[in-house]
Design goal:
The chain has 225 residues and is mainly alpha-helical. The protein is 70% helix and 4% strand. The protein folds into 2 domains: 75 residues, Arc Repressor Mutant, subunit A; 139 residues, GntR ligand-binding domain-like (Four Helix Bundle (Hemerythrin (Met), subunit A)), CATH 1.20.120. Pfam families: FCD (PF07729), GntR (PF00392).
């Protein structure tokens, strides 16, 4: 197993009242930056030493991440970042496509002008990230973009379901974000989604958002060929 680098922990001061939640966020950040990868063992002792906390909150954080599907805990071996099979990934894309269609139908009726303006601003940042060959910045803005899309539906159940799936896909999505030649297509799809929302076209937004997700699924299938 590779030696873990704890650059993401530099300067961190954990709040003792919420330490387990903050450790969860830290582990997600380490996945996002590539410090932790699928199959890596999460060493409780090492985390405890680096963060200056007992193992109790670390175990609490790992149990929460296990419930999200991000971590697998194996008796007598420890906690590992879960590996997603291709079937797992494709199944998640199918569910996300359905959620996207539902979100798209609601967005033109429920989104505020401020939210639409914020989405357009994020789109511009993603276009700039691609032009500057900065896929990690694209991925960061892309996450915020989709989070805001689902928030703008004002449907808490849709938002919660989307978050759960994105957490499970985090390892795979990070790997995809390094492939810059695919990101221009994503930006074009984002533009179609925003155009449909701006026109008040519920069916158009639903189809555009669903197709955006299915594009990712097809891209995955193509890479398997």
């Amino acid at each position: 197993m590779k030696s873990l680098k704890f650059d993401d922990t530099q300067g961190i001061k954990l709040n003792r009242a919420t330490v387990a939640i903050e450790i969860q966020a830290l582990i997600r950040k380490m996945v996002f930056t590539g410090t932790l990868a699928a199959g890596d063992r999460i060493n409780e002792k090492l985390f405890s030493e680096k963060l200056g906390v007992s193992r109790g909150p670390i175990r609490e954080a790992l149990q929460a991440l296990r419930q999200e599907g991000l971590v697998e805990i194996i008796p007598n071996r420890g906690a590992f970042l879960r590996k997603l099979s291709m079937k797992d990934v494709l199944d998640l894309y199918d569910v996300m496509a359905g959620l996207g269609f539902s979100a798209g139908r609601l967005l033109p009726m429920r989104i505020t002008e401020k939210q639409l303006s914020d989405l357009k601003g994020l789109h511009e940042k993603m276009v700039r990230a691609v032009s500057e060959d900065d896929p990690l910045s694209f991925f960061k803005y892309n996450q915020v973009f989709h989070e805001l899309l689902f928030k703008a539906t004002k449907n808490d159940t849709l938002l919660e379901m989307m978050r759960g799936i994105e957490k499970r896909m985090m390892l795979y999505l990070h790997r995809e974000a390094t492939k810059t030649f695919m990101l221009r297509d994503s930006n074009m799809q984002h533009e179609k989604i925003l155009t449909a929302i701006s026109k008040g076209d519920s069916e158009g937004a639903a189809v555009a958002l669903m197709q955006h997700v299915l594009f990712g699924k097809q891209r995955t299938i193509d890479q398997m060929m």
